[in-house]
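Format notes (please read before filing issues)

Several people have asked whether sequences and structure tokens are stored in separate files. They are not. Every record keeps both together, in the order shown below: the sequence lines, then the token lines. Line labels are part of the format and must not be stripped during preprocessing.
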Amino acid sequence: MFLLVFSSVFLLQFSNISSIPKTVFKLILVNSTSFYIKPNTRGEQIEVPIVSSEDLQVNAKRNIKRGESPCRASNSSLKVSPARRQNKMVCDPAQVRLKVYMYDLPPEFHFGLLGWKGKDNQIWPNVKNPSRIWSYPGGLNLQHSVEYWLTLDLLSSNIPTIVRPCTAIRVKNSSQADIIFVPFFSSLSYNRHSKLHGREKVSVNKKLQDKLVQYLMGQNEWKRGGGKDHLIVAHHPNSMLDARKRLGSAMFVLADFGRYPAELANLEKDIIAPYKHLVPTIPRGKSASFTERPILVYFRGAIYRKDGGLIRQELFYILKDEKDVEFNFGSIKGNGVHQAGEGMASSKFCLNIAGDTPSSNRLFDAIASHCVPVIISDEIELPFEDVLDYSEFCIFVRAPDALKKGYLLNLLRGIKEDKWTKMWERLKEIVPLIEYQYPSQPGDAVDMIWKAVSRKVSSIRFNHHRMNRYNRSHRRV
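Then the structure lines:
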């Protein structure tokens, strides 16, 4: 079998291109990363349709019956089986999509904020065993934990026993990097350390931001490009408040642009990343169908908001007495997350209404619950929208239309079972794209963020080359 596969690949790789039709090119799965092998060319990594974890598990069972080894299936657990830990994988730097240089910032900027303390001069925790990594705080902290998952992924990229996608790897030399990653857990810093304690005159959060700015401004990597090739995660809307203007030339990973001026954050240079959903993901086989969901429209959350969130209050008074509508105040306290998960799982449509900011974790809770999101937020930006068509699995309603008496319910009641079911099926395919996990898996949120960054890199490089037109020419005279 091995000789047969090897000879086939050899023929595809080195045969004359005119004698082999394109239909003969084979899709080869290597460590769950897909490649097309083209004659007389090097293998190039390409985008392929997402395969669900259940499909992978079914194929694995079939392979076991035939005496073959199973394919690795996606999961959201931090634990891995001993057999999987024995697998070794080294990403070929020539094949990876994104080479990332990560600053070795002191632990106070990252895992030290989680309470981790290493030995003398130890900067990073040992992440070889996924079941024993230092965990991130739960509750609302968790929804903005993007920086944590990206940092873990980079730390694991040079560990052969960690099986992960080869989309991005950490490089030790910044001159080899496509992007420079700043490992500051800014959202956690805001959530845990933005308030003054005791006799403090300056919060720990502000001190860390000031120290970070001072550090970056002194680095040659920042000086050579003005920080434009740097990646900073500031997913909480209030994170990096004191430093964002001074570091605004960098590429930000954000939840939305609600609290940023357009010149500081925009789609041209920055990345919108999904929140980490709080409700449990519903397994595909246990997802309730159209007729099994008795609630037409569901919303649970804070109703009285400021700024653009005033629409929540207005919609509450329009919908609160309607049949098959649940529009309730709620929070994560007590049994709040469980109640929200049950409500979404029993509903056909879940409202995602603008609050203090255009986005919220509610959208991703709805996706994980396979409840078709109804987005009423005119200023919202969505993750990976350059490669995802959200209209395939979401309903968009402009705020002025939503406030017209009867408009919203007439619209949703007019959506028939077949159309809803098509969106429901698409939602189940989308769920893996918003899952954060360690180790990362092909097509999960971490992998998708790195791919989004890589799509920005070419424009960064283009602008950098244009800036250097005359600088280099003059240096050579």
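For reference, the curators noted about this record: Confidence is low (pLDDT under 50) at residues 3-86. The longest strand covers residues 295-301.
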